[in-house]
TrEMBL record:
It comes from Pseudooceanicola algae. Its cofactor is Mg(2+). Its main location: cytoplasm. Belongs to the NDK family. The gene is ndk. GO terms for molecular function: ATP binding; metal ion binding; nucleoside diphosphate kinase activity. The keyword Nucleotide-binding applies. It is found in: Cytoplasm. PROSITE patterns: NDPK, NDPK_LIKE. Homotetramer. This is Nucleoside diphosphate kinase. GO terms for cellular component: cytoplasm. Residues 3-140 form the Nucleoside diphosphate kinase-like domain. InterPro entries: NDK-like_dom, NDK-like_dom_sf, Nucleoside_diP_kinase, Nucleoside_diP_kinase_AS. Its EC number is 2.7.4.6.
Amino acid sequence: MAIERTLSIIKPDATRRNLTGKINAKFEDAGLRIVAQKRIHLTPAQAGIFYEVHKERPFYGELCDFMASEPVVVQVLEGEGAIAKNREVMGATNPADAAAGTVRAEFAESVGENSVHGSDAPETAAAEIAYFFSGLELVG
Ligand code: DAT
Ligand code: MG
């Protein structure tokens, strides 16, 4: 398995509850290295571009408003098979379905407010990292 990078977001429901450190500990315990990280406050339009793939879904407006409701922490995680590994650490989209010990099982409030985002494939990881970070900000 190759060394990969993936885009992670600690969402507003988690930053509001001061969970950034606890979530980062789960990433680091799983062998994922945080090679870039910053706290930002998205506008609804910026969230809308990020989640454009979901624009036809009924929850799109609610999702964009939620992502812009409070600051988020955007980060790049690096490691062996980082994209799939991060999805494992995150757990299923709906916390009711998430395996014990995952971020979403422990911290997510609902399917909509589910604490973390993680890229789902190499192509989306590359595009999502480039949306938030310049090459100079990625310190391997
Ligand atoms: P994931 O974040 O696990 O990749 P996704 O890409 O299918 O899940 O959806 C993106 C986000 O949209 C998800 O984290 C929360 C929101 N969402 C998905 N399904 C939803 C639903 N049924 N109701 C409300 N929000 C939903
Ligand atoms: Mg997704």
